[in-house]
TrEMBL record:
SUPFAM superfamilies in alphabetical order: Protein kinase-like (PK-like)
Top-tier EC class: transferase
Domain Protein kinase: 11-266
The organism of origin for this protein: Lentzea albidocapillata subsp. violacea
Name of protein: non-specific serine/threonine protein kinase
């Protein structure tokens, strides 16, 4: 029988709980105190530079110091830190639970009431940290453990930033997970309690909708989504959606605060009447740059078009030139007969009364049939099997405006969409080996104005759709 490995003549390693690029987490037995612990072992890849190894070790020490300063039931307790044989180990409270990301993956989207209870506990941990002058900086589903009894533990304070501790941003980069970073952080502002609350809002959206709202196929497209594409909340209850939108307010000065959120979440968790979203004084929204931390964010031209927003008439243009499938220019063709294929690079409308009267795809989903005049797209099919079209990107043009804002007009939406879909297509075109057609869909006025329809809510997005130019079936996803 193989002898158990013993660390520091105290911790017997029993089983491996998880492994990553930088180390291993073990289930271990503290033979001095007779209790089970989680032992995090830092084990950087071979060949890593000494400077980077020192940064990683300092982050582990920071995690121990930071967690040690906090006394809250939703913060994982750190017991000990030891060095042995040139390796660093962190002995921590053992939490027998899945993380929130694993729960969603295994069991599907979470109920809004359940999520409110989890969010309240995470909020408590963050309030304790913020009161101690600590910003977590990496709140996300994989760092939130939820036990079967509903108790929550916020983990991984390794990149937390204390006011009296120097930052550890290796090589000058922003540390954290891009899909959960707030626009103010991506714009170069310091991490703050408000940026932690943004990340909590993204986490809540992920849990109740079942997908990470800003995660895309590349860092650039993820950053663009954070800047310009608020998540569409279809599963969240209206009360929880208000909390999420409050956390995802672009201007950190207008963002929902922890006390405001606690009041709203408590009502949801207890089944009490919803607490309305606080009305902040009107102020200028943060205008975020189209280039962030050295990465050119896609669709800058489309975003610039939004900044100069002026409502136009609802006409789609009078150019009646017939479009060509191989054209490199966008066209505005005359009306098509019902059943006619929608051409490439010709803006069409979707939703109530549109060229595509119903559209139910989201994310990067695929559909069996091709786009044709007058035909709805109601159901998706797996992208790894035969399909006709794929939604490869979507954006919410007036993302920081009230959702009851007047319809900006088909002409304005079409101009936005041409720029946006062209830039998004350029990002994936180098990976495509065959001629592809693509176009943009904009909502009709009726679809736009039905945003608050409780039974069948309308959409205020623009959509980018692609297919093979010869209209033979696609065999796999062209987007990641």
């Amino acid at each position: 029988m193989q002898q158990q490995r013993l660390v520091a003549n105290r911790y017997a390693l029993l089983a491996e709980l998880g492994r990553g690029a930088m180390g291993v987490v073990w289930r271990a037995q503290d033979q001095v105190l007779g209790r089970a612990v989680a032992l995090k072992e830092l084990h950087p890849p071979q060949g890593i530079a000494a400077e980077e190894r020192n940064v990683l070790e300092e982050r582990m020490l920071r995690e121990a110091r930071t967690a040690g300063r906090l006394n809250h039931p939703a913060v994982v307790t750190v017991y000990d830190i030891v060095r042995e044989n040139d390796r660093t180990y962190l002995a921590m409270e053992l939490v027998d639970a899945l993380d929130l990301a694993g729960i969603v993956q295994k069991h599907g989207p979470r109920d809004s009431t359940w999520m409110a209870g989890v969010a309240l506990q995470v909020l408590g941990a963050l309030e304790a940290a913020h009161s101690a002058g600590i910003v977590h900086r990496d709140v996300k589903p994989s760092n939130i453990m939820v036990r079967p009894d509903g108790a929550v533990k916020l983990t991984d304070f390794g990149i937390a930033q204390a006011m009296d501790d120097p930052r550890l941003t290796h090589n000058g980069g922003i540390v954290g997970s891009p899909a959960y970073m707030s626009p103010d952080r991506l714009h170069g502002w310091e991490a703050s309690p408000a940026s932690d609350l943004w990340a909590l809002g993204v986490t809540m959206a992920h849990a109740v909708e079942g997908v990470s709202p800003f995660e895309r196929t590349s860092t650039a497209s993820t950053l663009h989504a954070v800047m310009n594409e608020p998540p569409v909340l279809r599963r969240a209850s209206p009360a929880l959606a208000d909390v999420i939108r409050g956390f995802l307010t672009v201007d950190p000065k207008r963002r929902l605060t922890a006390p405001q959120a606690r009041h709203m979440l408590t009502a949801i968790a207890q089944g009490a009447p919803a607490v309305p979203l606080p009305r902040n004084k009107k102020s200028t929204a943060v205008k975020v740059a189209a280039v962030v931390v050295g990465v050119a964010v896609l669709a800058g031209a489309a975003f610039a078009g939004y900044q100069a927003f002026k409502p136009q008439d609802s006409g789609a243009g009078q150019n009646t030139n017939q479009p060509s499938e191989n054209s490199t220019e966008w066209t505005e063709a005359a009306s098509l007969p019902v059943g006619a294929p929608l051409p490439s690079r010709r803006i069409a409308t979707f939703g109530r009364g549109g060229d595509v009267p119903e559209w139910n795809l989201s994310g990067t989903q695929c559909a069996k049939d091709f786009l044709t005049q007058g035909s709805p797209v109601r159901t998706d099919v797996p992208c790894n099997g035969p399909h006709g079209i794929q939604l490869f990107s979507a954006a919410t043009p007036l993302w920081d405006k009230p959702k009851d804002i007047a319809y900006p007009g088909t002409k304005w939406l079409a101009d936005f969409t041409k720029n946006y879909c062209t830039e998004q297509f350029k990002a994936i075109e180098p990976n495509i080996k065959e001629p592809i057609g693509f176009t943009g869909l904009v909502p009709t006025q009726k679809e736009w104005e039905a945003y608050h329809d409780a039974a069948t809510p309308g959409r205020q997005e623009v959509l980018c759709v692609l297919w093979k130019q010869d209209r033979s079936p696609l065999a796999g996803s062209l987007v990641g």
